[in-house]
Amino acid sequence: MSTLPRILIVEDDPQIRELICRALEDGTRQCETCADLKSALQRLHLGLPDLLILDRVLPGGDGLRILQKVREVSNLPVLLLTSLRSEDHKVEGLEAGADDYLGKPFSLRELTARVNALLRRSRNPVGVSLRLGALSLDSEGRQAFCGEQPLDLSPLEVRVLKTLLLNQDRVLRRDELIGLAWGVEYEGYDRAVDTLVVRLRRKLAGPGMPQVRTVRGQGYSLSLEEDA
């Protein structure tokens, strides 16, 4: 049985599917494809891939329906591909549980870099548990806890939280936090970061829990102190 990472590409445009497969199947990955929402759901019922590349607009419905089904059972990395490029659509996709978002048209070089970053993150756990006050992150970097109680965080929220925990002694600029949490450079994600911070603050509430602190004019840090 092959040990190569398995990538499922859900894209209705046959030309784009072919281009993605050719770019990614270089002997280090293997790809499967689906062209619509129904066939993608049927394929996922047979077993999950190591990474999902998902078009947002599909015959049969919104690709976010697939993402929501996946997130009910797995934290596998999901890269959204879409021609819907507004900031609202980016935030909507990330809030639904996508790990990354790439607008069409895109370069195959950038696509490959983002796929590699997502696969690296999924296969390289933190190695040690991280703690600050009552907050802890498990040794695989996938589950956060308040004391002994698991926190209901999305995979993206966990990654942002892990990035802040790994940089407790620093104030991270917004663009720095994006780059460290996602693994590649991003533009136009300011509102997505602000939305994540608001959600994390709400979910981290509790005795002894740190908060994502806003340092005015500088950025964010994780601290047991109040905002400066």
Briefly summarize what is shown.
By secondary structure, this protein is α/β, with parallel strands linked by helices. Helix content is 39%, strand content 21%.
Structure, described:
This protein has helices spanning 14-24, 37-45, 64-71, 87-95, 108-123, 155-166, 174-182, 190-203, and strands spanning 6-10, 30-34, 51-55, 57-58, 61-62, 78-82, 100-103, 130-132, 135-137, 144-146, 149-150, 211-215, 219-223. A hairpin with a 2-residue loop joins strand 8 (130-132) and strand 9. By secondary structure, it is α/β, with parallel strands linked by helices. The protein has 2 domains: 6-123, 3-Layer(aba) Sandwich (Rossmann fold); 130-223, Winged helix-like DNA-binding domain superfamily/Winged helix DNA-binding domain (Arc Repressor Mutant, subunit A, Orthogonal Bundle). It is built from 8 helices and 13 strands. The strands form 4 sheets. A 5-stranded parallel β-sheet has the order 2-1-3-6-7, sandwiched between helices. A 4-stranded antiparallel β-sheet has the order 8-9-10-11, with helices on one face. Helix 6 packs across helix 7.
Query: What radius of gyration results from the CA coordinates?
Result: 18 Å
Tell me what the CATH architecture of the largest domain is. 3-Layer(aba) Sandwich
CATH class of the largest domain: Alpha Beta
* Helix and strand pattern: EHEHEEEHEHEHEEEEHHHEE
> How many structural units, i.e. domains?
2
Low-confidence stretches: none
Number of strands: 13
Structural class of the secondary elements?
alpha/beta
Name the CATH homologous superfamily of the largest domain: Response regulator
Overall shape: it is elongated
What is the end-to-end distance?
Answer: 55 Å
Number of helices: 8
User: How much of the residues is beta strand, in percent?
Assistant: 15-25%
Indicate the mean pLDDT.
84
Q: Into which percent range does the helicity of residues fall?
A: 25-40%
Biggest beta-sheet profile: 5 strands, parallel
- Strand arrangement within the widest β-sheet reads 2-1-3-6-7
> What name does CATH use for the topology of the largest domain?
Rossmann fold
